[in-house]
From TrEMBL:
<protein>
    <submittedName>
        <fullName>Carbohydrate kinase</fullName>
    </submittedName>
</protein>
<feature type="domain" description="Carbohydrate kinase FGGY C-terminal">
    <location>
        <begin position="247"/>
        <end position="435"/>
    </location>
</feature>
<dbReference type="GO" id="GO:0005997">
    <property type="term" value="P:xylulose metabolic process"/>
</dbReference>
<dbReference type="GO" id="GO:0005829">
    <property type="term" value="C:cytosol"/>
</dbReference>
<dbReference type="GO" id="GO:0004856">
    <property type="term" value="F:D-xylulokinase activity"/>
</dbReference>
<feature type="domain" description="Carbohydrate kinase FGGY N-terminal">
    <location>
        <begin position="7"/>
        <end position="194"/>
    </location>
</feature>
<keyword id="KW-0808">Transferase</keyword>
<dbReference type="Pfam" id="PF00370">
    <property type="entry name" value="FGGY_N"/>
</dbReference>
<dbReference type="InterPro" id="IPR043129">
    <property type="entry name" value="ATPase_NBD"/>
</dbReference>
<comment type="similarity">
    <text>Belongs to the FGGY kinase family.</text>
</comment>
<dbReference type="Pfam" id="PF21546">
    <property type="entry name" value="FGGY_C_2"/>
</dbReference>
<dbReference type="InterPro" id="IPR018484">
    <property type="entry name" value="FGGY_N"/>
</dbReference>
<keyword id="KW-0418">Kinase</keyword>
<dbReference type="InterPro" id="IPR049382">
    <property type="entry name" value="FGGY_C_2"/>
</dbReference>
Amino acid sequence: MSATPVIAVFDVGKTNKKLFLFDENYRIVFERSARFNETVDEDGFPCENLQSLRLSVFDSMSEIFRLKDFKVKAVNFSAYGASFVYLDESGQPVAPLYNYLKPYPEELSSNIYNRYGGELQFSNQTASPLLGSLNSGLQLYRLAQQQPALYKKVKYALHLPQYLSFLLSGQYYSDMTSIGCHTALWDFANQRYHHWVQQEGVSLKLAPIAAADATLPALFPGNNYKVGVGLHDSSAALIPYLISFREPFILISTGTWCISLNPFNQSPLTEDELDKDCLFYIQYKGSPVKASRLFTGSEHEQQVKRIAAHFNQDAIKFRNVPYDAGIIERLKKKFPQASGEFAKESMFATRDLSAFADDVEAYHQLMLDLTNLQVVSTQLVLKGSQVVTRIFVDGGFSKNSIYMNLLASAFPHLEIFAASMAQASAIGAALCIHKDWNSKQVPSDIIELKYYA
């Protein structure tokens, strides 16, 4: 029997690193998962173990080339953004993969903001809220200012997805989905690097920009396969929706962060929107995607632990609590609800758990509070756009019936769907280079939808 043509996709998150093989119908036919212990940088701050990650890529490639049932036609990558790998002339890392959660020196950020028009102008032009190390361009600026000798050794700074591509292709490229994601590098109005990037000499450390759907010849030994340039994971997760649906929509991608992505809204960011954590991403075809973000996945995790501890329950119980409209109506009458104003955290952290009849009632209130936040955040990218008719929700909350029913109640004029798709960002990376490995048409049933009235 002949070997099945497949694409290999490395999907690298902060916690889990996964490898998938997809067949030409985008079914997962092979899967591996790994977690690495973090290491620390020179300041003792936790960071990615780059050596473990690099060896894992090579070991995984060797493993899949030994599988006789599959013929690897291409490889691509989706990975978290906001982190640079600094490479010398020989392609070796010369610095840690600094953690985007590492505190950023205030004097450095103030210095660059003041030199280039002030905080508001700088963040508006780069469509990047002021996020410290999460603005990865500022990580490069920090290296130049604080470690000039090390900075001098850097030939290219590659975002993580492009570094993974470099490991297999040997070629240095940048990619717009990584550059355009709250990096403070890109001037969205003029469609080029912001002038601070040239002025500070940072542009000399940035590799040429390749198209997101470009492929490169492979350097790592194996059969004659193509190597994609890699994608920022949030932008990769949007690709299946852009390919599958033509009518304007919003995608709420839920996980640790809950991000409302509107590919049909390019209206300029206002000062108010920037202050409310709105930004632009850039989708794989190069156009801006207006987005708003909440840290509600993380808040949900913490508050579920609090409920479980108070009511002496196992936290696992709350993974499948059914929606009860009667409880919601009671809660709305019994307790003060959110005002409808924007907030980054819900009211639930300040609520007295002993006021609730039981853990199920408390959990309904948590979801009510979190959904209220979500509605306000999503409305920020809904206004000023083309007429949106649908909202798709993927990730963890798409499986939460309370969240989905409350969202449907809040947007009665829109169609609300829970979208189920195995590994959206990995499939997006595979779809991006479909033409280079797949002889079939893109299937129409990649995304499974459940409608909430």
